[in-house]
Amino acid sequence: MIGMIQDISTMHDVLHESKTGLWIIEIEDGRQPRMFADQTMMELLGLKTVVTPEKCYEHWYERIAGEYYPVVNACVEEMVKTGRAEVQYPWYHPDLGKIYIRCGGVADRTYSKGMRLRGYHQNVTDTTVMRREKEKLEELNQEIVGSLYNLFFAVYRIDIEKGTICAIRVPGDVQEIPQGDFPYESFWNDYASQNFHPDYIEEIREELSIAHFRSLMAEGNERYAVESLRKVDGEYHSISCNVYLGGKKSWVLLALQDLHEQKKKDEESRRALKEAYEMAQKANEAKSDFLSKMSHDIRTPLNAVLGMTELARLHMDDREKLENALDKISSSSQLLLGLVNEVLDMSRIETGNYELQDGRFNLDNLIEELICLIMPQAEVRKQKIHLEKKELTHVRVIGDNSRINQIFMNIMSNACKYTPEGGDIYITVSELPSGNKEVGRYQFVFRDTGIGMSEEFLQHIFEPFSRANDSRISKISGTGLGMVITQSLVQMMGGEITVKSRLGEGSCFTVVIGLKLQMDEAEEESLPDIQEVDCSGAHILLVEDNEINREIARELVGESGVVIEEACDGAEAVRMVRESEEGYYDLILMDIQMPEMDGYEATREIRALERRDVKRLPIVAMTANAFAEDVQAACRAGMNAHLAKPIDLNELERILKQYLSEGNAMEERPGKGVGTV
Known about the structure:
- It is a single chain.
- The chain is an alpha+beta fold.
- The protein contains 20 helices and 23 strands.
- The protein folds into five domains: 128 residues, PAS domain (Beta-Lactamase); 107 residues, Beta-Lactamase (2-Layer Sandwich); 86 residues, Signal transduction histidine kinase, dimerisation/phosphotransfer (DHp) domain (Helix Hairpins), CATH 1.10.287.130; 159 residues, Histidine kinase-like ATPase, C-terminal domain (Heat Shock Protein 90, 2-Layer Sandwich); 122 residues, 3-Layer(aba) Sandwich (Rossmann fold), CATH 3.40.50.2300.
- Strands 12, 13, 14, 15, 16, 17 and 18 form a seven-stranded mixed sheet that branches.
């Protein structure tokens, strides 16, 4: 008996030395899993004090590397199914960090209360790491050998004591090379005479002689290289003869490297770098010129705004002069806004952040609206606009109508600006065969009798910041970005834009784009007749942190006869809605960027209130964040519409009437309609 006890003690010592602990795991329904561990197992788990079996199991299980839980669970299932299983996995020791564990066990078939497993837990980190390091070393050696094989087209081992050479790798154009060791000097003299450029033969023979090898080795050199010219397919290629010296050893390694392709690549790289540098210089010059022009173009309308503001103050009692000043302030502000928008659009196109937003619209109506928009500009210059429509079979389409509008307005505005007084502008719209019943293909031709463009400028018309060097247009404001933006938008729609022009004969722009067709028979959604809507008495909550912006919005919105209440940030807006009677507010105008709580979070908080009215309460984003993703973010936050700053009075009035009109009730989620998100 004593001997048996001693044997057991010896066995535990062996297990301890081999870093192997024993465990029992019991899993029963309705109880936490338990792990019973021997002393070695406790040490391997890093448990310095006695813990309950439940804590022991939790300590072990929670430290398994996350991605290995399925592996460990599969091992347990295998134990239950077959009776035994083994697995290896990373485990995070409280002191040692990541270690590797080999774990195996058997199922106890006699246990009736649930599942009982018996097994061992062994730390195999040292052997695992060593094996992986060896594998990495082998992989590295293979990579090095492969790299050398790819780097050199010929490799020779030269025995300087015996004066022999042995080929390890030979060039493809060298035939009948002897096997094994053969005389070095005679071979190399013949090889140099036949393959190297005559001007380099003597140099090569001297630099790669055994006498020279010995001299270099005596000096303690480890390697050197000689460049030369070698004949390949009738032409000479630059090569490098690399000599690796064996120090005190009696042999050297000669490796020949073809530099021809590398030098070609280096030359191409230098050429490309030079071209890139020249292009960068041109771009910098263009941007400097752009900034200079932008400074002028921004200051001009800004000066008008500031100057006319002062004149308005001086003539407050003169209605005619006051109205004239306000008109010029308005037109100058619109010009300034257009310049800013073009710069922002270009920036977003260059960074790939420009997105198109599809919607349903009537192409016929869009064209008519564009003519109405451009007509005042044409009438000022006594220009005539001629519109011709050809075979427009499908006019109900799907696409980004606002960007199509932008494309056409850019072209038509330029036509008006660069066509003399009394000139003509011709617009032709036609539907082309598409070959796809779900897509319509449309061609838009814009022709004018303007000043035209030179052949040289036509080559650069779609480059950023490009403007013709023409004294006749020097006083016409512009960023030089309009055509770049136009081309980018057309290409984003999968279309193409071309231009023909001659100096003094006018210009002709042709745009071809494809638009998805509305396949259903439903008519375009229309708003209720809001012209007669009475908004007076409606309660609007204006949420805006900027006092000046609140004043502007207060005055603009107040013109509709509504009752306005104000909040300075999102948190205050949430509080005011929460404390108001149900149905008190009819609409919320919500700024986005605010302290304490932004507009998105405030909207989500309002929508989450435990009351029915907030689910249908119209919330309109009124913000300077005017890009497509900003509109989408407003929609995701639960807003119904998006109104960009600076506020357009007509658009504000339309939105107010749309959401305050009787019978235009909101659904649980944001409603639909023009101007909604």
